[in-house]
Design goal:
With 308 residues, the protein is of the alpha/beta class. The protein has a single domain, classed as 3-Layer(aba) Sandwich (Rossmann fold). The chain contains ten helices and 13 strands. β9 and β10 form a beta hairpin. The chain is globular. The protein binds adenosine-5'-triphosphate and iron/sulfur cluster. Adenosine-5'-triphosphate binds next to α1, β9, β11 and α8. Keywords: 4Fe-4S, ATP-binding, Cytoplasm, Hydrolase, Iron, Iron-sulfur, Metal-binding, Nucleotide-binding.
Length: 308
């Protein structure tokens, strides 16, 4: 059975598209594997699977083995570096053209979600992160039903809900949280993305929207607030193209100088997304400390859920 060797399954959900769900999934996956965990990412965002692009593996070809589809390896575990393995399976690998959105009707989508949960051969994994379609659509309901059927109760750790300050102001996030409560999926916490803007000239973060809504809403539902993530244009360039983030001289994050080192290649020459350089570049992004704290909080929430 494809999920039998997975220890913890974490869903990444959002009530609305484009709020940064795939970006958060990617960062959680990288931070978990940097912390030594073996990680799988299952991308079933049928509205436009973007995970392969974010890991720089869009052209990878999945193969079929007797145990099921074999996920693509982003990198193997490296015990000397203390990093865990990272593997990815995405619906994007099966689409005829990269970047296509799936236009199937409900039953076919539902069948595909079921197949993805049962026919991907995952080796031993500490964490399987599932990037889900936005909203509380048919796919969601099908995913929740299938997971509850296929996963052991001790495997399904819960959901991380991603929102933006604007989505908090609408009914979308509350709908998503209510969806989790209704379907019996534990909420590990809420992330508020795109809450401010990191200036490319001085790296000062300005809160361009009214902030704090995500935290208040998390409080209303009695769930953990996992933090606020500002918009960093360098993160966008990195995640979309694999190019190294570049910060002005003297940029400090948590007391660490992350400004572009002298002699670093020009952006045009720096688009290779091999796993090692990608991880190095993510570590050099101003958002890295926020994502690694978020990951530590998710790990603690999963541990608490296991004890409950
Ligand atoms: N904090 C951030 N700073 C800069 N860019 C960001 C940030 N978060 C997300 N983005 C960018 O915003 C866009 C949308 O993000 P992403 O694809 O992660 O959203 P999503 O919720 O998964 O979208 P979809 O609903 O289409 O699956 C991407 O181009 C991503 O690189
Ligand atoms: S200090 Fe930074 S954020 Fe403020 S105006 Fe200058 S460049 Fe923009």
């Amino acid at each position: 059975m494809s999920l039998s060797k997975v220890k913890h399954i974490v869903l990444v959900l959002s009530g609305k598209g484009g709020v940064g769900k795939s970006s958060v999934t990617t960062q959680l996956a990288l931070s978990l594997s940097l912390a030594g965990h073996s990680v799988g990412v299952l991308d079933i965002d049928l509205t436009g699977p973007s995970i392969p692009r974010m890991f720089g593996i869009e052209n990878a070809k999945v193969t079929q083995a007797p145990g099921g589809w074999l996920p693509i390896t982003v990198h193997e575990a490296d015990p000397t570096a203390g990093t865990g393995s990272l593997r990815v399976m995405s619906l994007g690998f099966l689409l005829p053209r990269r970047g296509d959105a799936v236009v199937w009707r409900g039953p076919k989508k539902t069948a595909m979600v079921r197949q993805f949960l049962s026919d991907v051969f995952w080796d031993e994994l500490d964490y399987l992160l599932i990037d889900t379609p936005p909203g509380t659509s048919d796919e969601h309901i099908s995913l929740a039903e299938t997971l509850l059927q296929k996963a052991r109760p001790d495997q399904l750790a819960g959901a991380v809900v991603v929102t933006t300050p604007q989505a908090v102001a609408t009914a979308d996030v509350r709908k998503e949280l209510n969806f989790c409560i209704k379907t019996g999926i534990r909420i590990l916490g809420v992330v508020e993305n795109m809450c401010g803007f990191v200036c490319p000239n001085c790296s000062e973060c300005t809160m361009i929207f009214s902030s704090g809504g995500g935290e208040i809403m998390a409080g209303d539902f009695g769930v953990q607030f996992l933090g606020s993530v500002p918009i960093d244009p360098q993160f966008l360039v990195l995640i979309e193209t694999g190019k190294r983030p570049r910060y002005p001289e003297g940029t400090l994050v948590n007391g660490q100088d992350i400004s572009t080192p002298a002699g670093a290649p020009h952006i045009e020459e720096e688009s290779i997304k091999d796993a090692a350089s990608l991880m190095q570049k993510y570590r050099a992004c101003s958002l890295a400390p926020i994502f690694s704290k978020m990951t530590a909080d998710v790990v603690s929430a999963v541990q608490r859920a296991n004890l409950a």
